[in-house]
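INTERNAL AUDIT FORM
Audit reference: QA-55
Scope: verify that the stored structure record matches its stored sequence.
Auditor: D.O.
Record contents follow.
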Amino acid sequence: MTFTYVIEHMEEDETTPKSLPPWVELEYAHMITLAGINGRVEFTHLSQNSCSSLNDRLASINEPAASYRVHTRSVMELLEQNNIPITRLCLLDPKAQTVLAPEDGKIFDHFLFGGILGDDPPRDRTSELRQLGFPSRHLGPMQMTTDTALGVTKRVVDDEVQLNAIPYVDFPTITFNAKESVEMPFRYIVNGKEPILPPKMRELLHEDLNKSFDF
């Protein structure tokens, strides 16, 4: 079965020509590699400027990745246009009653994520999607970045790995040198001892850390 991962963009545009913050572009680009070559990623509810910017960024990726499309339409408009009932779509919701399991890959073929950078503390912006009445599942008690949530979902429903069998690290410290580091307030999939971050995210974190010391 081909699984489709829908990212309903919920961030405001920045007042720059690219519109999308660099953090968002890095996470969204990471998603199409995490989804696997047999997956599909639909980015919805983007502004026209953001669509153009994101298309350019995704087209530059030179590694195996899922197919993707970017839309100004919302997830509801996308479902209606393609005659997809909401019963085929699962909302990944921290407040859902049921944990995501491999068996859910036989029930749903679309998985919906709020395309937002994780807030610390969480602001429950998923509530805007919850009100639309989708079936829902959760990914455990720890907050994840949106790209991590997609990667975890893919492993559970596509690779049929139990949620608690995936290796994680919580609140990892990203070390740049002997004097500079930053703690990330999220759960990540881990590869060996290192959290799986979007390519170039370490550099962006270091750049932002240095900016915080500019007076």
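Auditor finding: record pair retrieved intact. The chain has a mean pLDDT of 89.
Action required: none
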